[in-house]
Automatic annotation (TrEMBL):
Keyword Glycoprotein: no
Protein name: CBS domain-containing protein
Lineage per the UniProt record: Bacteria, Bacillati, Actinomycetota, Actinomycetes, Pseudonocardiales
Domain BON as annotated: residue spans: 123-192
Organism: Amycolatopsis samaneae
This protein's UniProt keywords: CBS domain
Length: 192
């Protein structure tokens, strides 16, 4: 797997003259760890990270600073063809949270730690985890049901107080993004 397959694209960027407050708003709004800082030609000249934002706020003493004054530079970049293994090694070794992806000198995307983790989790696993959390909250953190998910089809197995509770569990399951169908089975149905 390569950077081009997992990167966030197009990249949200800042320029050196962007006020720190605006760049922080972009970080928060998009949930990013960092923004590539690009010049007028789209070439990466730095990286504005959460650390840079905090450092800039501390050093600013109330004065609005620009991204160019606090950005990290020089910045490490990868190409769209860089392997995920190589990216992971660089992130771990250098304690990086994101790397700009550059092609022909121009930023085309960003790879974050979260992007590296996504391929490790199957879609069905994410659905199951989300539904298990909902059911745990509903049941007061007593493990009353098991959850299986195959291609978005959910099977909830266990003991249901009555038909109304079965309906509530079905409705809860349908609120989870990616669920295509729901089957609630009583514990004695499973034994067949």
């Amino acid at each position: 797997m390569r950077a081009r397959e997992i990167m966030t694209s197009p990249a949200v960027t800042a320029d050196p003259d962007t006020p720190v407050r605006e760049a922080v708003a972009l970080l928060i709004e998009h949930g990013f760890a960092g923004l590539p800082v690009v010049d007028a030609d789209g070439r990466v000249v730095g990286l504005f990270t959460e650390y840079d934002a905090l450092h800039g706020a501390r050093e600013g003493n109330g004065v609005v600073t620009t991204v160019g004054q606090v950005m990290t530079k020089p910045v490490e970049v990868v190409s769209p063809e860089t392997t995920v293994v190589a990216i992971g090694r660089r992130m771990l070794t250098d304690r990086l949270r994101c790397l700009p992806v550059v092609e022909d000198g121009v930023v085309v995307g960003v790879v974050s730690r979260r992007d590296l983790l996504r391929p490790l989790v199957r879609h069905d696993d994410a659905i199951a985890a989300h539904l298990r959390a909902l059911l745990s909250d509903y049941a007061g953190h007593r493990g009353r049901w098991t959850v299986e998910v195959v291609n978005g089809a959910v099977t909830v197995s266990g003991t249901f107080t009555d038909q109304a509770e079965r309906g509530v569990i079905t409705a809860l399951a349908r609120t989870v993004p990616g669920v295509s169908e729901v089957d609630c089975r009583s514990a004695h149905t499973m034994a067949r």
